[in-house]
């Protein structure tokens, strides 16, 4: 097959790859990946309120997945934005939309008999981009090297072809009976294929990474879409791009699958570690807050501090956790006890769960 980077890759074959075999090296990584994913999933299912701790992890994933696309926001800016209804930072907004898109996709999948369909992917990209984008009907979309402007890859064209390829991908994703492949290997295949089809004008990388998380939930390997995969990809972004190209140009599935399995192994361990540290910190804070607030201790306040590490008085009122006066007195006491630190921006005082912020920052 002659391949030319500069013309639309309409010859992109459907999955599965014709001559792929699981080498001993891949089998070894698969065993490891399954073990660490299992451990993470066990921890998630044992959490009393899984959504609570996971919300911040998912926001970390959103931050990194967006950073791969050069949408960069600082940790502080992002968590501040999560507390506000309106935020001025464009990047922070797009990261928050990413998190929303992950949950929108999850709900959509659950409402469609657990199937991951083309329309789910469209809804995901629309939520990320907060617009009505749909399947591309134009050529001229090419991936270029950001430094020298050279074309790296030209995806297929146009809408009809893209829809056909997406339909075949949909079939491959949802038909688990006819394929003897390990679901984790399938995930790597699906991610490549989605990126190679590149069905949207923008948002393909991010949508494809959300699809990874949803696929693990669909396959019941995770009960929550918690995997922090992009923390690995952002660190090894050059290889990520390189290996996607090598599948197209050299049929090098082996190294691509190894890359994704290694990413799974490392990030499953990292996510487990983070959740464990958060649980310990939450216990510590529960004790200290009971001492500080005595009989007025509020479990809802503790929970909120671990979902939104930037608190403000109005937020406690809005969430109907306390009236203004009580909220203000609690936060003052927590500041004096150094459980939170304060930061004043304009007329708003934020009360920051700074230990959680520290914990989330170090990867
Ligand atoms: N050679 C390649 N072949 C196919 N896909 C690629 C290749 N190189 C990079 N990609 C994918 O393209 C994504 C960027 O596409 P884009 O639509 O801009 O996504 P986003 O809007 O989320 O930034 C990358 O994150 C990567 O997943
Ligand atoms: Mg982009």
Folded structure, characterized:
This protein is mainly α and 363 residues long. It is built from 15 helices and five strands. Strand 4 and strand 5 form a beta hairpin. The strands form two sheets. It has a three-stranded antiparallel β-sheet with strand order 3-5-4, sandwiched between helices. A two-stranded antiparallel sheet has the order 1-2. Magnesium ion binds next to loops.
How many H/I helices? 15
The outline comes out as elongated
Mean pLDDT: 95
Give the CATH superfamily of the largest domain.
Fido-like domain
Note poorly predicted spans.
Answer: none
In short, what is this structure?
This protein has 363 residues and is mainly α. The protein folds into two domains: 24-274, Fic-like fold; 280-361, Arc Repressor Mutant, subunit A. It is 63% helix and 5% strand.
Question: Mind sketching the topology for me?
Answer:
Layout: H1 24-46, H2 50-68, H3 75-83, H4 90-111, H5 118-129, E1 143-144, E2 151-153, H6 159-174, H7 183-197, H8 204-218, H9 230-235, H10 237-250, H11 253-293, H12 299-307, E3 310-311, H13 313-318, H14 324-336, E4 341-345, E5 348-352, H15 354-361
Helix pairs in contact: 1-11, 2-4, 2-12, 3-4, 4-5, 4-8, 5-8, 6-7, 7-8, 7-11, 10-11, 11-15
This protein binds adenosine-5'-diphosphate and magnesium ion.
């Amino acid at each position: 097959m002659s391949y030319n980077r500069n013309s639309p890759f309409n010859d992109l074959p459907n999955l599965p790859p014709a001559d792929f075999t699981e080498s001993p090296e891949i089998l070894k990584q698969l065993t490891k990946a399954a073990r660490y994913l299992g451990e993470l999933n066990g921890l998630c299912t044992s959490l009393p309120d899984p959504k609570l701790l996971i919300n911040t992890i998912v926001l970390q994933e959103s931050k990194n997945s967006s950073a791969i696309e050069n949408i960069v926001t600082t940790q502080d800016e992002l968590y501040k934005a999560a507390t506000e209804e309106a935020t001025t930072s464009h990047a922070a907004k797009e990261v928050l939309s990413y998190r929303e898109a992950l949950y929108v996709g999850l709900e959509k999948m659950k409402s469609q008999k657990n199937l991951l369909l083309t329309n789910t992917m469209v809804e995901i990209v629309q939520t990320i981009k907060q617009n009505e984008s749909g399947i591309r009907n134009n050529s001229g979309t090419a991936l270029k090297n950001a430094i020298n402007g050279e074309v790296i890859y030209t995806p297929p064209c146009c809408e009809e072809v893209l829809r056909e390829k997406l339909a075949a991908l949909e079939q491959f994703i949802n038909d688990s009976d006819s394929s003897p492949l390990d679901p984790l290997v399938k995930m790597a295949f699906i991610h490549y294929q989605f990126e190679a089809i590149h069905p949207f004008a923008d948002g393909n990388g991010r949508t494809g990474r959300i699809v990874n998380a949803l696929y693990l939930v669909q396959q019941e390997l995770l009960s929550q879409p918690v995997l922090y995969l992009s923390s690995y990809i952002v660190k090894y972004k050059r290889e990520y791009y390189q290996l996607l190209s090598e599948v197209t140009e050299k049929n090098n599935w082996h190294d691509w699958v190894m890359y994704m399995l290694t990413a799974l192994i490392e990030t499953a361990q990292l996510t487990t570690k983070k959740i464990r540290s958060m649980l310990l910190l939450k216990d510590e804070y529960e004790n200290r807050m009971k001492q500080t607030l005595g009989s007025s201790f509020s479990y809802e306040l503790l929970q909120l501090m671990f979902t939104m590490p930037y608190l403000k008085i109005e937020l406690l009122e809005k969430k109907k956790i306390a009236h203004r006066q009580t909220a203000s007195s609690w936060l003052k006491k927590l500041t004096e006890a150094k459980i939170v630190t304060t930061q004043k921006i304009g007329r708003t005082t934020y009360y920051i769960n700074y230990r959680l912020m520290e914990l989330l920052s170090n990867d």
